[in-house]
Amino acid sequence: MSLSPAKSETAGAAPRKVIIVDDDRDTRELLQFTLEGQGYEVKLAANGLRLISTLHVDKPDLILLDVMMSWIDGFELCQAIKQNSEFRDIPVVFISGRTAQADIDRGYQVGCVDYFTKPLDLGRLLSRVREVTGAPPGATPPAGAGATG
Fold this sequence. Notes:
This protein has about 150 residues and is α/β, with parallel strands linked by helices. The chain is built from 5 helices and 5 strands, in the order E-H-E-H-E-H-E-H-E-H. Strand 1, helix 1 (about 25-35) and strand 2 form a beta-alpha-beta unit. The two termini are about 25 Å apart.
């Protein structure tokens, strides 16, 4: 994958699509900036209801999902996604301030492929996003990417 946001990871290939679902605007915007800088097409959703409407319009390659949100928490939302035959194959990665082992275990029980705690290690998260979306392994995060608050 090219470090230039204008180029896709392979010639002629469409960019990978990621939906970020987090009720914290700063987190959404940080992740959007980071992923778009790596060539991903990013959609934002402030809650589960917005995610559901977005899924019906534009199916992503990955969902980055917060746990603590209004209307429906991330665990319930992930479980609903995994029970829907149209969306169950979309990988879900949790990004959460909930760091207890019981929460991490619950994330895997409801179907996530990974669980990252805040503050996020952006370099590690980007590596996992590349792995889950099938981006080339040689792609690297931009200089300065790392742990954030």
